[in-house]
Structures are given as C-alpha cells and as structure tokens.
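Students often ask why we bother predicting the structure of a whole assembly rather than each chain alone. The short answer is interfaces. A chain on its own may look different once its partners are present, and contacts between molecules only exist in the joint model. In this exercise we take four input lines together and write out one structure for the complete complex. Read the inputs first and try to guess which parts will touch.
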Amino acid sequence: MLFERIESEGLAHYSYIIGEGTEAVVIDPRRDCGIYVDKAKRAGARIALILETHRNEDYVVGSVELASRTGAEIWHTEPELEYGYGRLARDGQVWKFGRLSLQAIHTPGHTPGSMSYLLKTPQGDPWILFSGDTLFAGDVGRVDLPGLDRMEEMAGLLHESLFERIIPLGDDVIVCPAHGAGSVCGSVIQDRPWTTIGIERRLNPKIQHRNREDFIRDVARELERPPYFRMMEKLNLEGPPVLGSLPVPDPVQAGDFAERAGSGLTLDVRSDLAFGAAHVPGSLFIWRSGLPSYAGWFLSYAKPVFLITPGGPPEVVPDLVRLGFDNVAGYLAGGMLAWHMAGKESRAVSMLTVQELCRQLDAKMDRWILDVRSEEELDSDGRIPDAHHIHITLLPGRLGEIPKDCTVYIFCGSGLRSMTAASLLARAGWKDIAVVLGGLAGWTSRTCPLKVTGS
Amino acid sequence: MLFERIESEGLAHYSYIIGEGTEAVVIDPRRDCGIYVDKAKRAGARIALILETHRNEDYVVGSVELASRTGAEIWHTEPELEYGYGRLARDGQVWKFGRLSLQAIHTPGHTPGSMSYLLKTPQGDPWILFSGDTLFAGDVGRVDLPGLDRMEEMAGLLHESLFERIIPLGDDVIVCPAHGAGSVCGSVIQDRPWTTIGIERRLNPKIQHRNREDFIRDVARELERPPYFRMMEKLNLEGPPVLGSLPVPDPVQAGDFAERAGSGLTLDVRSDLAFGAAHVPGSLFIWRSGLPSYAGWFLSYAKPVFLITPGGPPEVVPDLVRLGFDNVAGYLAGGMLAWHMAGKESRAVSMLTVQELCRQLDAKMDRWILDVRSEEELDSDGRIPDAHHIHITLLPGRLGEIPKDCTVYIFCGSGLRSMTAASLLARAGWKDIAVVLGGLAGWTSRTCPLKVTGS
Amino acid sequence: MLFERIESEGLAHYSYIIGEGTEAVVIDPRRDCGIYVDKAKRAGARIALILETHRNEDYVVGSVELASRTGAEIWHTEPELEYGYGRLARDGQVWKFGRLSLQAIHTPGHTPGSMSYLLKTPQGDPWILFSGDTLFAGDVGRVDLPGLDRMEEMAGLLHESLFERIIPLGDDVIVCPAHGAGSVCGSVIQDRPWTTIGIERRLNPKIQHRNREDFIRDVARELERPPYFRMMEKLNLEGPPVLGSLPVPDPVQAGDFAERAGSGLTLDVRSDLAFGAAHVPGSLFIWRSGLPSYAGWFLSYAKPVFLITPGGPPEVVPDLVRLGFDNVAGYLAGGMLAWHMAGKESRAVSMLTVQELCRQLDAKMDRWILDVRSEEELDSDGRIPDAHHIHITLLPGRLGEIPKDCTVYIFCGSGLRSMTAASLLARAGWKDIAVVLGGLAGWTSRTCPLKVTGS
Amino acid sequence: MLFERIESEGLAHYSYIIGEGTEAVVIDPRRDCGIYVDKAKRAGARIALILETHRNEDYVVGSVELASRTGAEIWHTEPELEYGYGRLARDGQVWKFGRLSLQAIHTPGHTPGSMSYLLKTPQGDPWILFSGDTLFAGDVGRVDLPGLDRMEEMAGLLHESLFERIIPLGDDVIVCPAHGAGSVCGSVIQDRPWTTIGIERRLNPKIQHRNREDFIRDVARELERPPYFRMMEKLNLEGPPVLGSLPVPDPVQAGDFAERAGSGLTLDVRSDLAFGAAHVPGSLFIWRSGLPSYAGWFLSYAKPVFLITPGGPPEVVPDLVRLGFDNVAGYLAGGMLAWHMAGKESRAVSMLTVQELCRQLDAKMDRWILDVRSEEELDSDGRIPDAHHIHITLLPGRLGEIPKDCTVYIFCGSGLRSMTAASLLARAGWKDIAVVLGGLAGWTSRTCPLKVTGS
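Now the answer. The structure tokens for the assembled complex follow.
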C-alpha cells in the first residue's frame, strides 16, 4: 500500500497520496506536482483521482496541473460555485481503488461545501479521516471566510460537522488534516504530526465545548485575511494556468539590475542580519521560511518579482509559485557581493541587541517603540509598556501613525518580522529605524528597565 | 566557467553546455532537457543560446523544448531547408558570452549546412572545436544521407572541411564531437572520450588519406538508414511537439493487458534470457541498452507502445521520447510474474549454449543457421560456414527466405540481437527457432565442428 | 518535530527516529544507519539515544554501528542476558528530549524483556506507542523463541502485556510496531501502515479473545525458526562488528569466476525467468525481494558470497548486511551475457505455464508434484491433490523424499519459491525438474484436471 | 571507458578516476572518498590502483582512506621520504588495466619525486598526461617547498621535466593537472578546464622561456606557505587516520554554546554581511568558499572547532576534513537568531560602501587604511595611496603595526578578506574598524578622492 503525506514547508500544507494495486488518489495536491507523479510511478500506480477537501484560499491547488500530466479525474466540493474544471463530489460518494475505498463526508463550516474523506480498510472499517480544514491537531477551521454575515451560520455548521459527523466515527480513527503547525489557516495548530479523533477529543481546546452556543462564541471570530486570498479563490475556482515546469528566473548582472528590476518589486530573501547590514535600496525583506506566510501580504500579482538571494540562484521559486506568483523574473547575479564590487550603493538598517537597547533607552528620550506582533501574541506573551502596536500585516495602511523625527525601535517576537517592517518603513522614506535583535524573546531573557506586562 | 558534456547513453549522443558569467550556450540539446536547465541554474547562468551543428537524423533535437523553458535563441544550419523555428547561422558568425566566444565554421559533408563551432579562449585563441557529426574520435561523418546522387559531392565537401578548415586549426585544439562510441552515426567511433585534432590526425584511419580521391573512395559509401530517420528529419525541421514533462505510461493489470495493448505494439525490454524463458505472445524484444539503436527500426509512430519491464515502472521512456516515440501508453503491472499468476499463457524461445549447439549440430541434419550480424562484423570477426546472413535490420523484409520446416539457429555477436530476431520470427509465425547464447563471441571461445572463416 | 518511520523493505522492518529541539532518539536502528544520521542532521538534532524494543532475532540491530558514529547512548532490554554493549532499560524509565518524553513499558511475551516505549505529548498525554514485536497491525508477537518449554509462560505474559498494559492506554493511542506486512516475525501482519490501539481492538484477530486461556491456546504455537536466527541472537547480544561503510564486492570476469567463487557460494538474484533460462551451474537462486526472508535459510556465514546480478553491480549488499552476511566478496562482471560470450557452459530449468502443465499432466504418467508452500498457505489457499508437500525451508533436510527418476513439477504460490527449490534440487543433482509459472495463483485462474481442494 | 575528473571546489583540487573493463585507477584521491567508490561501482569496476603524483602539501590525500575501503594498491613518489603506507613508483613503471595503460614519467621540480602519469590509448599512443603539480593551465608548480636552499635546483629540474620530458610528448596530448583556477598551488592558474600540451605551449606564460636561466629566474620564487602545510606533509607521509565516515558535529543550544565552545575556536562561515551585522564575540570569520584557502592559516589543529552557520547544520565538514581538521565538534543550533532570542550579546563590525567612504574620507582626518591584498594583487590591480599593506595571511604576526586609536578602514579585493581581517582584529581587541564593502573592485568603479596607482 502507498500512503504518504507530502508537506509543503512554510505553508505547512499537507497533501496525501494513497494507493493500492495500480491506482492512486491524491488529496489536495500542490502545484509543483512532480512529487506525486514520481511516488505513484515508483509504487507502480497511476494517479486516477484527485480529491479537493474544499476550495482553498491560502495556496493555489495543483489539481489542474496534476490532471494535465496524469489524466486523473478531479473532484471538488462547493455546490455554490461555478468551477472551471472538475466535477462536484457529493456527500456519501464512494471511490474504490484496489481493496480500499474513500467516502465523502460533508463537513461544512470552514466553507459551505467542505468535504472530509474517510479511508476505509479492506474490511470496510473506518480508518483514516482526511479532514481538510475542518479539524486540525489542536484547532478547527476558521469560519469567517465565507463572509462575516455567515460567520455564525458557518460556526453552527462546523459544530454539527465535528460533533455529529466526525467524532461519532470513533476515537481510534486517525486524523489527517490539510495543515500542520505554522499554517495561516489555524493560529494554534499544534506540532502533532499524527493524531486521532480521540487525541483531539482529549487535547484540542476547541472541541472541549460540546455546547453549541459556547462553541459558536469561541470560533465565530474574524481573523486576518491576506489580500492574496482573493487571487487564490479566483485561481482555485477557474483553474490556474498549467505551468509544465517551474519558471526559471534570469541571473541579472549588478550593472543591469536597477533598470531590469525598476518595473517590478525587489524581494530580498537573505538572512535578516545580512539585509540589515546592506541591501539594494527600495527592496522588501522577507526571510525565506516566512515567505509562504508573508509574500501574500506584501507582493503584488501585477509586478514581476526580482530576488536578492545569498548569492546563488533562488530556491524560493516553488514557494512563490504555490501562491500564484508565477512571474519571478530574475535575481541579482552574485548577490550583494557583486553589487558592492560593481560600486553600487546600498542601504543599511540599524540593529541592536537587547543589551544595547537597555543602554540606549536609559540615555535617550526621543524614541518610539513599534511592536509589530499580532494581538494573539500580545495576549499570550505580554505587552511592552509605551510601545505602539501595529500588526505587521496592517503596517502598509497605518504608516501615517509612525513618526519620522525620532528613532523608531521595532520589536517582534524574534527580530525577523521587525526587519520586514523596517524594509517597509525604509521603502516609504523612514530613515531613523532600529531593529531589536532577538525581539521579545531576547528581551524577556534579560532584566532591563523596559518591562513586559501581562504575559 | 561551466563546461559539461551531457551524454545520452545508448544513443551515445553528446551535447554540451558551456557558460561564462551569467550566460550559457547549449550545443545540440536532447529533448529531455531539464538537465541543462539545472546545470545552468546551479552555475548562476541563463541559457541564452542553442546551437545546432546540423539537422539531426538520429534523434529528436531538444532545441524547441529547451527554448520553451528558457527563452533561448535557437540557431540552425541548413540554408537549403525551411525550418519551422529558429534562425540560420552563417559561416564565421561569432557569439560572445562572458569573456568567451564561439565562432561558426561551415564544415559541410555530413549535411550541406553542417557547422562546427570553435570555442576561443578569453585571449581569442582556438581552444575547443564542437565538431558535430563532421569529425568523431576515430571516424568521420557519413555522407550518404543527403542522397546517393550527392554522395560523392558530399564526400568532397567533407574532405575540404576536414583538411582545409579543421586540421589547420592546430593539433592542440580539443575536439568535442556530437557522438561517442556506440552511435549509429559512425560505425567505428572509438571509445576515446577526449581527443584533439592531433590525436585524430595520428589515429583516425579516415583522415590518413590526404589525397582527395582516396578519401572520397573511402567514405562515399551507402550505410544503413533506419526508417525512423525520416521522422527525425521531419521533426527536426518543423520542430517537435513541446512535452513539458515526460509521458507517464499507465500500469495495466494482466487481466486488461491483452485488450489495452491490442491496438498497439508490445515491446519487451527485459533481459534476453527472461524474454526467452517466457514472454507475452506477439511481443517484440529489444534489450534495454539496445533500444536507442533498434527501436527506430522496429517500432512504428502510428501505434501506441505497451511495455513489458522487469516488473516495475518503465525506465526507458526518455530513450523512446528521444526518438520521437511519445506515445508510450502503458506497461504490464507486476511484469511477467503477474501475467503468470493471472493464469495467462506465455511463449518461450529455445536457447542453447555453444556446448549444446556442438552436440546438436553433430546429431542433427535439418538445420538452418541464420546470422543476423552486419556486413562489417562478418568482415572483421569472420563468417560461419553454411550460415545464411540477413542483417537484423533487414529481417522484416526478408522473412520469406527463412524456412519454417526445420530448426532455425540464430547467431549474432553476443546473443542479444538474436533474441530480437527470434521475437520478429515468432511474431511472424515461426515456431522452431533457437537462439545461440553468447553468439559468435561464445562460439569462438570454443573448439567445435562449426568453424569460423575469414576472421 | 522530527518523526519518521524508516522501512527496510523485504524485512518489512520499521525503525523510527523522533526528535525535538536538538535531540533525537532512534528506536531499533538498522545496521546501514547513514539514513538516521542524515535525517537528524537535516533536522538540526543529534542522535542522543538509541532504544531497542527487544533482543532481535531476525536482523542485526544497528545500535552499535549508529553509536560509533554519533556517540548516542544505547538502551537494551533483556535482564536475563549479558550484553556486550549498552545499558539495561527498566520498566517505567523516562527519557526526556526537548518538550517530549518516552516512557518504557515492560511488555514481555515475545521475549522476557520486551519493552514498548510510549511517546507522550508536551502536556504529558499518551500519544504514540512503539510496540516492538509485541503488537503488530493484525497480529501479535510470536512466543516460541525463548524456548518451547517457556512458550505457554510467554503467551501468558503477552496476554498481560496486551490487556493490562497496552490496551488500557486508550483506543486513541497510535501504535508503531517494529514490523509491517511481509515480515517473518508475524505471518498475518496486515498491510495497515498506520494504526491505533482502538483499530487493533476492532480488527486484530489475536486480541479478540479477552479470555486468557483462549489467547494462550491461540498464540502458543511453534513457528519456523530460520537457522540464521541463532547468529542474529549472538550478534545482537555481543554487538556486531562496526562496518564504517558497506562492503564493496569485486567485479569478477567470467574467465576467473569459477575459480574465485569456488570457495564460496554463488547466489543468483536475477529474475526467476532469467535464472530458469540459463544460470551458472551450482548457483542458488533467490529473487531479489525474497532475499531478506530466504537468505537466512540457505546461505552460510562460513563462506563468502558471490553474486549473479542482471549485469550491473549488486544492489543487494544492504539486504545481506542487515542479516549479518558481511562477506559479499564478488559478482560476475557483465552478468550472464559475459558468461556466455566467454563460452562458458550454463544450465537451465524447465518452466511451464499452467496451460502447458494441463497438457502434460493429461499425457504423462511418471510425474511427481512438489508443493513447497507453507502449512498456513495450504490451509488458506487449498491443497493440490496428489502433491507432495515439503515447505521450501525444510527442503534441504528432506531431499531424500524426492524421486530422481521422473519429472518433478514444483509448485508454490507464484513460481518464485519454486525456482529457489529448483536451484536447491539442481545443486543436489536432480535433472528432471520443472517449475510451474504462476504457481497456485496461476493454476486457480484456470480450469484443469488438477483440482485444488479445501481452499 | 570510465573517465571522470572529480573537483573539490574551493581547493580547486582535481582528482581523476579512469577505468577500463573491471579495473579502475584513482589519481590523487581526496579524503572523503565515497565518490570514487560509487563511480567505480556504477561502472562495474573495482578500484585496483591509487597513484599519487607527489607528496601533497595543501590537502590530506585520501589514499589510505580509499584503500581501506577497496583494497587498492597505493603508489607514492618520493624516494627521499619514509612513507607509512604504500609503495614507491619508479620512473617508467607501467600499470595496465583493461586495454589501457598508465606510465610513470618522473617530472621533478615541484617536489624531488613528482611523477606525471601518461595514459596511453589501446594502440599504445600518448593520450592524456596527468601532470600533478608540475604543469597547470597557465602556470607551473611552485619550487620553493623542498626548501629555499634547493629552490634553484628544483627550478632547474622543473625546466628539464617540462622541456625534455613533457613537451616532447606532443602538442596534441591532453593535460590533466591536479589543480584548477583558484588553487593555492598556483596563483595564476587559468580557468581553462581542459587543455593540451600545445595550448599550454601557446598560452602558458611560464613556458614561453625555453632558456633555462630565464626560466629559473622566473619560477624560483618563494611563495607563501600556510602553517597547515606542515601538518599536511606529516599526514601525507605517515598516512592520516581512517575516518570511515565524516564527523557529525553536535548542535549546541545558545545557552550552552559559550561553555562548550570556550575550549575551542568559534568559526563563523556565514556571509560577510551577516557576520558584520552581528556575531558571537570572539569568533573568527571565513566565508564559506574561502575556507579551503584560509582555514589552514587561521585554524589550529590543537583545538576543536565550533561553527556558526546560517542556521542549519554545517555543510563545510568535508572542506575542513580535507585539510585535516577532523575535530569539528559542534555548531550553534538555530544560528544567530537563536543566539539573540536567548538574549545573548553579539558584536558588530562597521561596514561602509565606497560612496560612504568617499564622504568619510573627505571629513575625517584620523584614519588608517589597511590593505590586506597580496603583493601580486597590488602589482596587477594597483595600490591605494596612503594605505598600509599587510597581506591577510601575515596579519596575526603583524598586529603591532596597526593603531588602536583611530578608525582602521580595511580593504581587500571584494570585501570578503577584509571581514576576515576585521574578525582577527576584533578578537585581538580592536574596536574602531570598518570594512569597505566591494573592496578595490567597488572602489575602482567610482570616482573618488582616493586614487589607485599603478594598475
């Protein structure tokens, strides 16, 4: 039997390939889909079916790409929508492959059409539930995406899905969700790579409330919705363009870079420290593993992307393509070393350790502390007195609140998002900014005049 | 500097990628072209140029495929032809990339437009000659392909190309041809992976004749022309279909195989011994490494190919695609083990060792020895008295010469082509056939009544 | 979190690497242990602990090898034995790594010291049970290895281990055993790669009996014990030699093979059909994927092994080393093609399809059918009337029962073991033997005079 | 035929594996020698011979390691020395393998015993010369290593080796040296990956002088001799310890790092910019690709090495092991991000672009410019007026020349060595140091008051 989970790191997206005999099924494939083709081939199976658990919002699903290479049938889930590809799966529908079968279980809540798929043993017993974005390890799906007006309705549906459709399958059924820890689809997903319905019943805080009203009150909350979700929804409805192979960005010589990249956006994916030390003026910083979470907030589909890498060819093309950024046009050949050797000017961001910050805060009066962490982090890890809080994702729209005439000290949890924030401020003309290295984690390891409250 | 030779085994096709700075050139790419993209990427270069040395006849050139992925410019060579892609390179044309340059040197003979490309050092000195099918290690290009009526003309042109254009470049210039030992493009190409003009002047028997007439007499010979050459010429003129990724043949269950494969051709790529022991009735045998040489003789572009492999998924898809056989539709899942476990009937071919043959020849009168080696092999390795000689490639057209009423003993050099011949005979209804294991090599290691003459 | 199952195919042996933060644990490592080092390295962890679930009998455990590369602590389990390495784990012992912990649960039955290890969540809840050879998917550990006199005692202990120590952990706990389907350690292990205590409670036939007496009656059975188990027990007690890297067998030219291999055993790992067609006289046949199951029955630790492969270098060295066969000295360079081209004599085995067998059985009187399947297969799949049954593993000791003066038709499930049996008979001088291709599976797909009873 | 060059990047060390039939030869293997074993295995050959071209000084030769895995015979070259392994090759000695042969040609000069090995074609013609450190592309071997007193003698020997033994082999012979561009063994080796005797005769400036006296005057020069050469000479004479597999450094948590690394040396192999932005106090910086050239100058064999990497596990272990630094004990887990999140203090180095330098030089009086380039670079690329020149390799011994009471601006060619120099100064207590990004290359791209003279 073929059974593998394919994880797309950063997105923390889980897809699955399951096969028996000469047939295989893929659930929620990603767009760079060669891995499924290879695994099926090695197992001596052909990919006959592609099942989507719901219309995804956070990445471009690879159904159309994979079907173009394998001829597989695609099944999607939202009866309210008009898809440009595939067919509509129905509650209770069964697909057999080899001695196994998968059964669709309608589990609305995250979206109106959300399906879970129950894999049954050859004897027909419940075995593994592919729960999509309905049930995660330690979390449940968000219910605000179909619209704020439908949020309570969706939360109610989710309650039924969980308590009347999933939990009755039995404690011993293994749960395979569409996301793991680190996904934007659930802020508190646990790092529990394998779980069961019973383990979730014991440990998942969201399904401790059997009471419908309490549950709805708990989960019917508006969460952040990155601007790229709209593009994902569009592509996942119409079917995205078939790539064939990944785009190959051009190496661009330092001397030509400003001109080539002028029409696009320069994205620096080196380390935060290297960016802080020197970067191409006007470039946006997102550290590599943060790309799946933050590219969708700060990049635009309208402009080509030019990359600054540690020197070699970019390795982030798959990450960008999974979010629909197919237009990765080039990268700075030779990296910043070549840039400086060509006599090009670069910019720096002030960085300081928490020790240095202690010293400066004692001495300095005209300072402004910007904390770019999320509300959830403020609640759980504590607030910095006198700090001004603007979540990193809201920064582009709230720049007006930040002064230009004094030093802006930027804080986040570790220093990474602070550097992204610094790059946003620098692009908008701020000059006197300083990133606190180690962020709140570093800070709370020290005793200093700047206290943290409420942690 | 990036400099790599990419060998397509079996075809013994050599292509080259050369890069300096951020630009790379590919000479005579193959169709499964991901390898060039990867090597260029790792070197931090983009593939800017694709140069063809001539219009190829023995494989599908990957220029169009590679250009579709990289945007490279394609340059081809035959002014007499109307290409469906690219631009025409001219004698003396120079392409610069980084500090290096390549210069086209018109070296007709193999084809009217054949180009060699001379790589020069940064100082402008001759360094490496990409000699296409004009000059090989130990051989020169065949001149019969443009037509028998033009053969002497082409041989004369080849003489000028070699003696007036290539040899004057200097003994110390490195020669990088388009084929190595084992290619159908030159029967006596030596296994000399790196060579120079001087080494060829010393060792290549074809260029010992400085006399034009002798040279023409020596090289103006008609050689075999596999039927697939016509398709290669067509595809390499029009530009073959862009694949994007390799075709993925379906695993086909033993129970469904006869029906699925009925419309196509069943090709067995297992070992000769396994085929001899048991095979699907009606299947054609070509051993794996013989595929690039013999598929073009015995397969048809009109029918889908179904494969019998050692059991797992087929690994020969790239070999077939390089010859334009894109329609590899399926393979027998589980191989012959599954076939027999499903109770399906198979056929066998008699095989015998040279020892056993000695015993049988002594005893048996009604026998007929079929030798499927080439004329060149007969000349160099000796003839078997009483044997009937039909080269394997001519067998389909000369079956009428072979008796059905006595045992046909089949000989080749090693036993491999004999098994291919046996599969051709079995498909055409012969029953009493026997393959001599080890072939002439085995035979000549023994003393036996069957003498070999003339070796 | 790092959590991976490493499967050694053929053996169907499962080992596990689990890591959190900078520390990782490996449970029951195999001897070719680079894979754990690589996975730990990639995860940024060091392998700090190696836990054995019991003293293994069916493969050489890689604890000592892995510890020599990583400095990890080894914990073993049998207080009755004097180990040459490591320390003794105690019931209830806890190892912490990162936020996780593993707790030893003494679960005797398969061996007196057998340990299961319970992985707990950061919150301290039961999560995953590494159940060693105590509980499998669909089976439980055999209890006959500590001695037939202790068999009932061990079965009783196993009952307590299962019903008083494992099942009470809860239905929702995930079970990760040391073997999957195909292992010699449990004949009815199911192809259920992920399971839970609850799923086993529902589906595992062995733990349906809550009644102690019934359970003991069911599981206290003597099973086959391959002769190599003794060597495994010895090596796994003393600690096997450290390899550093895998042995590299020499390619041996056909002309030298007989002499070099004369002192050893020639093992042919090609396909059954190729072996049947032609093999080096005196060689033993075991198909590649059957090697982990049958090498231990028919190979000797006293003699070097020489391999016949499909032609290239052998890929079975890891399989042999896992069983302690470190002395793989050489292989026939160029395979049987080179053998025959050197004029060497080979032997064949008659093979026939079930169709041909029907015809022969009708016609022929002096025949003897040898069925080499196991008793379990006879019971489940049916018996062949008039067949003589000797399980393949018992064949070397019962050759005297087999006639030499008539055709011996050999049957197994598929034809593979029949060819191994044929090689054993041929080595012992039998000449008139015939393997039935497709075996019983092929036979029962057909209607023929030879009926199968009792299936 | 098997013919491959294995390049160890950074060292620019070329080793070769050549095989025919079932035997292969390796010339000057490196210590991480799995690559030869794999290539020989894939080619169906065993490594029967290991040939050293001379006793190496710049890396640990892998002869003993490779012989321990393959049983190959080792041949070394220096009759004056007492080796702890292998046998002494003699001038004219011939080794046959398959149809090919290698002949030793004594070519002293770089060392007294230096051998070149001439590969001959099956016909016995000169084909490829493995020229060791005697002849490179564009350079010849240095002659100062046997001792300054023997330098002229060695230069004379080298002249004879080149003009009487190598050049007479013929222009068309291919030259395969032991090093390519970038090696410390020849400062002007050209990036000409394939060359011939004739090409060198045309282009190699060192062999333009046929006159013996001129040649000696030209090449008898003392070059730098890194302190690690002594250890290489010792290990390559006695035979280095057999590794079996590469060392696996431990991940060390930020909280434990200072204590663990206290006894050793902390080596930072991140980018120059990241090091400049923030580094562990007291750490030495060498950029990754500079490691093979500079580790031998600044590391010690007496102390364990602890690494600071971009975050993941170190990839530089092979580079260090090739230089005999087997004691790579650990690395900072999670990199500098983890360091700062643990609230640890870090240090920074001032960096400035050439533009900023222009501005500062105008304004600032108390400055001191340190140029760490080599004499050769000063000669070829020009000198900076007012700069103080100390080659990077001499810096540890000449720190006393550098002031501590004014800003020290550090220049090299690109900025990389400047950062290494800065790390050396910072470790020795300097505080006011500034690295010029882009170095001289950047500077000469701009017009600025600081002129470069003599370029």
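Check your guess against this: The longest strand of chain C covers residues 13-20.
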